[in-house]
Design a protein that fits this description.
The complex is a heterotrimer of chains A (about 240), B (about 675) and C (about 350). Chain A has about 240 residues and is an all-alpha fold. Chain A has one domain (about 10-210). Chain A has helices at about 5-15, 25-30, 35-60, 70-90, 95-100, 110-120, 125-155, 165, 185-190, 190-220, and strands at about 160, 175. A two-stranded antiparallel sheet of chain A has the order 1-2. Chain A is flat and about 60 Å long. The two termini of chain A are about 35 Å apart. Chain B folds into three domains: about 20-355, Rossmann fold (3-Layer(aba) Sandwich), CATH 3.40.50.11540; about 395-485; about 615-675. Helix content of chain B is about 50%, strand content about 10%. In chain B, helix 6 links the parallel strand 10 and strand 11 (about 225-230). The longest helix of chain B has about 60 residues, at about 425-490. Chain C folds into two domains: about 15-170, no CATH class; about 175-325, no CATH class. Chain C is built from 18 helices and two strands. Classes of the chains: A mainly alpha (about 240), B alpha/beta (about 675), C mainly alpha (about 350). Chains in contact: A-C, B-C.
Chain lengths: ~240, ~675, ~350
């Protein structure tokens, strides 16, 4: 494996190969629990932790485990990590644990985690793997939180409600009411809202990509007119 | 009253037939120049049989058919052939095509011609020949050679002969006026055609918007057994398939011919042309063409000589250039715009339409398809035009074909009703063209795939044969080596022997004792192999020629080259033989005794000597020998390795050493055993 | 002389998309008049406000998509969506409710999918369902009809729309709500005890339904659509209702007549499911499409969570339309019946 560039890894995890809006992995929790910011943060943290843990473990054992049994082993590792996180949440953020419900244990089946274990951690050293887990988790988490914020705002007209579930009683007054007397827009909080807002986020990302591409193209050197033609094979588009 | 059926869909566009039907047929006269395209029909273009400057008479053959599906061409009036060249013709694509141009002399002089007094007395095939020689092609619009259509096999069993007097296209009245003025001739033509195809019934289908024509036909048909069937007006009931369904209730199978349901269908104009050809001996040199639209002040039907230009005809009808922006050949539904008013009238030109802009406005820009389904309701072929449009637009041609794109008759009913003004027919035409192209490409690639695979299997087979031969040779060599080893290698190393053999041979060659002969043999061999090669190459070439393969050229040059080589080789051989005879014959005894033979003899002698020794001694001796050989081999191996010899040789040496070691071990144990015993 | 080159056909029929849409708009007039008569100016205000918003959103979307404004606004399709949604919404709906609905219809259901002709779902119904899911309270409060409560005037209606906080409409349950909540009374008793609903399907409702039926029949006469889908839907609904009528017992789902004349049945049958873009295309396909909608309407009305069901039924069947098309391709001229080649 060639030298891993941390810059490249960061760019990949956060933008170019973002697990949530480019790879579209782990859509189930993404769509199901992003009704509010606090849910999103909870799940984002949990997922990120599991990613880091599993990537670490997988990277450590990558030379010991044979190819034939690697998938079960990875899943076992992930499941153990998830169980740990679940127990931790149960201990320290019980209400949130209850709200996240089934989606917490379901992190095990989140394709992002297995995907990173399979695609990265089992081929790379410890430090890059940890970093990859962190940055992929961050990329996933950012989208979760963004989606949670958008949906909470559209659905209730407020932001950061019920933060005490995660950050203790001191966080109870973090709630910001953006629009007074807001008529609850249930659709945004219900699953259809998740689909619609995810779609919009992807669209915005594509617009930005297209703009960047256009700018890059315009910066590219134009071929000089009358210059010698180069013979190429295949179709020229 | 006969039962008439309905077909799916159809539309009722404004008919506008009154414009041109009021006046009787007028003679368009003789223009100064007639331009006669060689392809006025479906099929191969005719081949001109006149020369530039040649004088022709009216009705004289000027081009003969090129094949079965083709028709001849006749001079529409007397004059001189002034050119045979490419001229712009009336075709949707606006391209040019080869035409015979006649400068008319105005005398209108007929060539000698005569008809048949009694067509029933002549043979069927002779009648068909007359029709074919008269140059008649379907006058309804498609222009399929009439004789081909009529030459149905007797065993097909035609139940119904249908004459198409429907003329469902708006504006056109050419058939209507024909019925009004020449009803008897239509009936006569119908009877001649009936005589040819022997149907159970003869029907003439007419839409109910032509009462006068119907009345005239009915009077003429009195007592002839020809039945006039009148049915409600609806576009496109004049389509062959639609008319057959209306009159018989049967549908022509997709991709099939009307004869598949026992029907032959002819336009009434063609019937009149057949009658003229058979009774009067008059070939097809003029036709009835409607000139109409608000762009002409005097719309009516003209009997016009083929090859007259549109401009000439329009002039007769008092054409208003300022009023008109497009000229349509054919009707408003299926006609096509011509690029230029100087294109000629051909056998299929039933109408020249010069509409005012307000009359047939240019289509507004197309909007999105809202899938309203009006097109599906209007489609006479029960297709789903909106889906076809969808697939054509998305280039999903497979799906389009699955939705029977090729059953579309391009009648334009869907475009007519489309509220979004989508040029649907245009999309279908483009899609059809692309599918046809794709099919061709697919066929081609399939062909080359088969060829490629055949070549591949042949190469593989040859490789396998070669491999088998090689394996056999190797095996034989191994066998030989083994035998040699068993027999003679007890004291002499086979490699050493081989080297010695080679040395001996070289020495012999150096002596030059047999050089002449070997050179001669070589030359002879070269000649034989080259001849063999030539033979196979020629065989291949003939095979390729038979297949029509495009490799013929390459093979040809190959054969030529091989032949040249063969000749060179033969020449060399001859020269050599000539030289050899002058030389003295080499002696057989000069050959040295084969080294191997010496070795074998030696070994045999050793064995005889061995036989006297005790087994113990024998074993020990053998062991010693083997050890000595092992040492020798090992030394050689080391030497070879040091000298950086070829890998092959080293491996060979290594294996030899290995084998010898084994043998030594074996011999040692044997020796021990014998000692013990 | 330069001659114009155009491909055939050169003649064109009188029908245009704009005219189709205009006809649909015209056909809603009787229904709107009846609704206004029975429920006051609420519906009218709905329609007008929805139309203004629809044109604005349409223009915005066209501008964003860089399409010529005049050409596309001229097809009236946005207006049709607005009018249909305006009719479907409860009278005296607040302005923002309508705005959200129209935004969902025009932006989400129509232009995100590519504009007129490319939307897989009926835009008006998408808007309606978005509202129904998001704001169940506002969406289920229908004004009381004439004769039951005081009818608000035009000014009140405007106030209800634009300053919703200051307006208190007299609302009451619709007949469908009543039926849904009924679990002990025989049908006859139910209607006798709730005399304000009249005999068939509720005061106002039955007449509005009949008015929409009249408008629909006129559209049929104008050949804007074929009879297949609406008739199939009505027949399927009536048959299912008859099947489960159960002699008017307390477990009855309501009489066929009740189902035909209440709620959005007629409006849906002639104005919603006939939207060609999102429905099946062949006549056979439209029969299936309509019949399944009829069946679904009954099932959702009687067994579902929501009192009326046309919107949901239509959206579900919009999903199924391409599938129906796949299996109802008509037999083309000269092809043997398709059964054999499917085997």
């Amino acid at each position: 494996m060639a030298e891993v560039s941390y810059r490249e890894l960061s760019l990949n995890g956060l933008w170019k190969n973002n697990p949530a809006i480019v790879q579209l992995l782990g859509l189930c929790p993404l769509l199901a629990v992003t009704g509010s910011v606090v849910n999103a943060i909870g799940l984002a943290l949990a997922t990120c932790l599991v990613l880091v843990t599993s990537n670490t473990a997988v990277s450590l054992i990558r030379n010991i485990v044979s190819d034939a049994v690697r998938l079960p082993v990875f899943v076992m590792i992930i499941a153990s990590a998830v169980t740990c996180i679940e127990l931790l949440m149960q201990a320290f953020a019980y209400e949130l644990y209850q709200i996240l419900g089934i989606f917490l244990p379901l992190i095990t089946t989140n394709c992002v985690i297995l995907g990173r274990a399979e695609a990265f951690a089992c081929k790379n050293g410890l430090l890059p793997s940890i970093y990859d887990g962190l940055i992929m988790g961050a990329g996933f988490g950012v989208i979760l939180i963004l989606l949670g914020g958008l949906r909470e705002l559209a659905g209730t007209g407020a932001l950061f409600a019920d933060m005490q579930l995660l950050f203790g009683p001191g966080a109870a007054d973090w709630k910001i009411v953006i629009v007074d007397n807001y008529q609850a827009f249930l659709l945004a909080i219900l699953p259809p809202g998740a689909f619609i807002f995810t779609g919009l986020i992807i669209a915005v990302k594509n617009i930005i990509d297209a703009r960047i591409q256009a700018r890059l193209d315009s910066l590219k050197e134009r071929p000089v007119k009358g210059s010698k033609r180069v013979r190429v094979t295949g179709t020229i588009s | 009253m006969r039962q008439v059926y309905d077909f799916h869909g159809g539309i009722h566009p404004p008919e506008n037939k009154h414009q041109s039907i009021a006046a009787p047929i007028a003679d368009a006269g003789i223009p100064e120049e007639l331009v006669l395209p060689l392809a006025q029909h479906i099929g191969a273009p005719a081949i001109p049989v006149v020369e530039i400057g040649q004088k022709v008479l009216k009705g004289q053959l000027i081009a003969e058919p090129a094949g079965f599906v083709s028709v001849p061409l006749h001079a529409p009036t007397s004059g001189t052939v002034s050119a045979i060249e490419d001229r712009q013709i009336a075709h949707p694509s606006g391209h040019s095509a080869r035409c015979v141009v006649i400068a008319t002399d105005g005398k209108d002089e007929w060539i000698d011609h005569s008809g048949l007094a009694d067509y029933k007395s002549v043979d069927r095939s002779e009648l068909l020949t007359i029709i074919r020689n008269a140059g008649i092609a379907g006058m309804g619009g498609a222009g399929f050679p009439t004789a081909v259509k009529l030459s149905v096999k007797a065993e097909v069993g035609i139940e119904t002969l249908i004459l198409n007097g429907t003329e469902c296209e708006p504006y056109i009245t050419a058939d209507d006026i024909l019925m009004r003025e020449r009803a008897e001739q239509i009936i006569e033509g119908a009877q001649i055609i009936a005589h040819l195809v022997q149907p159970d019934e003869i029907l003439i289908g007419v839409e109910d918007n032509k009462p006068e024509g119907i009345a005239a036909l009915q009077t003429a048909a009195e007592g002839t057994g020809v039945e006039i069937v009148v049915f409600p007006t609806k576009y496109p009931s004049g389509g062959e398939k639609q008319l057959i369904e209306i009159l018989t209730g049967k549908q022509v199978p997709s991709g099939g011919l009307p004869s598949a349901v026992g029907v032959v269908c002819q336009n009434i104009g063609s019937a009149v042309a057949v009658r003229d050809a058979v009774i009067d001996g008059r070939p097809l040199i003029s036709r009835i063409t409607t000139v109409t639209g608000e762009g002409v002040n005097d719309p009516r039907n003209y009997e016009v000589l083929l090859g007259s230009s549109l401009a000439y005809l329009l002039e007769q009808a008092d054409y208003q250039t300022n009023k008109n922006k497009r000229l349509i050949m054919g009707g408003p539904m299926m006609g096509f715009t011509v690029p230029d008013a100087h294109v000629p009238i051909v056998k299929t030109t039933n109408c020249v339409l010069a509409p005012a802009e307000t009359e047939l406005p240019a289509p507004p820009p197309a909007q999105a398809c809202i899938r309203c389904g009006m097109c599906a309701e209007a489609c006479p072929a029960s297709l789903l035009p909106q889906q076809l449009f969808w697939f054509s637009q998305g280039k999903e041609f497979e799906k389009a074909e699955q939705h029977n794109l090729f059953d579309c008759i391009e009648c334009g009913a869907c475009s007519f009703v489309c509220p979004s003004n989508i040029p649907l027919v245009q999309y279908y035409r483009a899609a059809k063209a692309e599918v046809v192209q794709l099919r061709k490409d697919a066929e081609k690639s399939e062909h080359s795939r088969i060829r490629f695979e055949a070549r591949q299997t042949r190469l593989e087979r040859e490789d396998a044969e070669k491999e088998a031969k090689r394996a056999a040779r190797k095996k034989a060599a191994e066998e030989k080596a083994r035998l040699a080893a068993e027999q003679g290698s007890t004291e002499e190393d086979p490699i050493q022997a081989a080297i010695e053999r080679a040395k001996a041979k070289k020495a012999a060659q150096a002596e030059g004792s047999n050089s002449a002969e070997s050179a001669g043999e070589k030359l002879e061999k070269a000649v034989v192999t080259t001849r063999k090669r030539l033979d196979t190459a020629t065989a291949k070439l003939t095979a390729a020629k038979e297949d029509g393969s495009d490799l013929v050229d390459a093979l040809q040059t190959g054969v030529d080259k091989t032949r040249a080589k063969l000749e060179a080789a033969e020449k060399a051989l001859r020269e050599h033989q000539h030289a050899a005879t002058t030389k003295e014959q080499p002696t057989e005894e000069a050959k040295p005794i084969d080294a191997a033979q010496v070795a074998i003899k030696k070994a045999m002698a050793a064995r005889v000597a061995d036989a006297d020794k005790s087994p113990e001694e024998k074993a020990r001796e053998a062991l010693q020998k083997l050890e000595a050989r092992l040492q020798k081999s090992e030394a050689r191996l080391a030497q070879g390795k040091a000298a950086g010899e070829e890998e092959k040789i080293i491996t060979a040496l290594e294996s030899t050493v290995e084998r010898l070691r084994e043998k030594v071990a074996q011999a040692q144990s044997q020796a021990n055993e014998t000692e013990v015993s | 002389m330069a001659l114009m080159r155009i491909t055939s056909p050169h003649a064109h029929g009188p029908m245009s998309t704009a005219r189709v849409m205009q006809n649909v708009l015209l056909a809603t007039v009787p229904g709107v008049i009846v609704l206004t008569h029975f429920f006051g100016f609420g519906t009218l205000v709905n329609i007008i406000w929805a139309s203004i918003l629809a044109l604005a959103f349409e223009a915005l979307a066209l501008r964003l998509r860089k399409r010529p404004l005049g050409f596309y606004l001229g097809d009236y399709s946005a207006l049709v969506t607005a009018v249909l949604l305006g009719i479907a919404l409860p009278p005296y709906s607040p302005w923002w409710l309508i705005a959200v609905g129209i935004a969902s219809s025009i932006l989400l259901a129509k232009h995100l999918y590519g504009g007129l002709g490319y939307n897989p779902f009926n835009p008006a119904m998408v808007g309606y369902v978005v509202l129904l899911i998001s704001f169940p309270v506002q969406m289920s409060s229908w004004a009381a009809p004439r004769g039951v409560g005081e009818l608000p005037g035009l000014l009140d209606a405007l106030q209800a729309c634009f300053t919703p906080g200051n307006f208190d409409a007299v609302t009451m349950a619709t007949p469908l709500d009543l039926l849904k909540q009924n679990n002990s009374l025989l049908m006859d008793d139910l209607w006798q005890q709730n005399a304000q609903f009249g005999r068939w399907a509720g005061i106002g409702w039955e007449w509005a339904s009949l008015a929409f039926l009249a408008g629909g029949l006129w559209l049929l006469y104008q050949r804007v659509f074929t009879w297949h889908a609406p008739i199939a839907m009505l027949v399927a609904l009536a048959l299912t209702a008859a099947l489960f009528y159960d002699g008017g017992s307390s477990a009855s789902g309501g009489s066929p007549l009740f189902h035909l004349l209440s709620g959005a049945t007629m409006f849906g049958a002639f104005f919603i499911i006939t939207d060609p873009v999102s429905s099946a295309v062949s006549t056979r396909g439209r029969l299936v499409f309509g019949a399944l909608i009829g069946l679904l309407v009954y099932l959702i009305r009687v067994y579902g969570n929501y009192p009326d069901a046309v919107a949901f039924a239509v959206l579900i069947m919009n999903f199924a339309a391409p599938f129906i098309d796949q299996y109802t391709q008509p037999r083309s001229y000269g092809h043997a019946a398709r059964r054999e080649d499917n085997e």
